[in-house]
Amino acid sequence: MTLLSLLAFAGLCLLLSVTPGPDTFLVLRIALNRASAGVAAAAGSASAAVVWAGLVGLGLAAILEQSAEVFRWVKIAGGIYLVYLGVSSFLKTRKAARAGMKEGADAPLPYSRWAGFGAGALSTLLNPKVGLFYLAVVPQFIPHGGNTFGTAMILGAVEAVIAFSYLTAVAVVAYKAMTWLRRPKVNSAMERASSGIITVLGVGVLASGAAS
Q1: What's the sign of the alpha-carbon dihedral 189, 90, 17, 175?
Q2: Where are the transmembrane segments (predicted)?
Q3: Which residues, other chains included, contact 184 with Cβ-Cβ below 8 Å and sequence gap of 6+?
């Protein structure tokens, strides 16, 4: 495998990473409350990507492509897990609200680092599109007669590094944005702006009613 081939594969991985998917939104959701948990989720997703590369190297991913039934059940499992993540996040938000959190106080952390890592790993492991990506693309970069498993693992490591870097950036930016929005001055400005907009709308309604 030449350097040019490796760069071409890295370019494909970058395109895959920047395309919004379940992993991106999961990391974004987790990082809103704790940046380190979001980074851990990114690490979990990257680690699971290496596992998929290993499956391709061993030829196991071929079974996923050839068996529509297996593919269907993996999709169902992935969908159920994503629904679980969404529902559990909603319930945790309601629980925090009922606990009477004060504005500006430290909110309970829905995810620990280990929980974030596990969520990221499972999200990627249960996403058959990741396996199909490796199954369709990785073999094109494996030299004929070469070490299939070793080459697949190298390519998997490249994809994992790129994905981790991108998802980590997403986690940090998301957390910084939430931190900025929670600042008293910013919060006050937003409240004033929203109050002003509501007032203007109210005046418009009154004016329209008086003219009719």
Answers
A1: positive
A2: 36-61, 73-91, 111-137, 149-173, 193-211
A3: 104
3-state secondary structure of 65: helix
Residue given tokens 């369709």 in the structure block: 136
> Sign (positive/negative) of CA torsion 190, 192, 197, 202?
positive
- pLDDT tens, position by position, for the chain (212 residues)? 677 878 888 887 887 777 767 788 888 888 887 889 999 999 999 999 999 888 877 875 566 557 767 756 766 766 676 677 667 666 665 665 565 444 444 444 467 889 999 989 998 888 877 877 777 777 677 666 667 778 888 888 999 999 999 999 989 988 888 767 566 665 566 556 655 655 665 566 556 555 55
Nearest to 111 by CA among 25, 30, 22: 30
Asked whether the whole model's pTM tops 0.70, one would answer no
Report the interhelical angle of 22-31 vs 113-125 (nearest 10°): 170
Does residue 35 share a domain with residue 118?
yes
Question: Position 169: which residue type?
Answer: A
Structure tokens at 13: 């991985």
112 and 148 part of one domain: yes
Number of domains in the chain: 2
Range of the domain at 193: 185-212
For the record, the structure tokens of 22 come out as: 């379940």
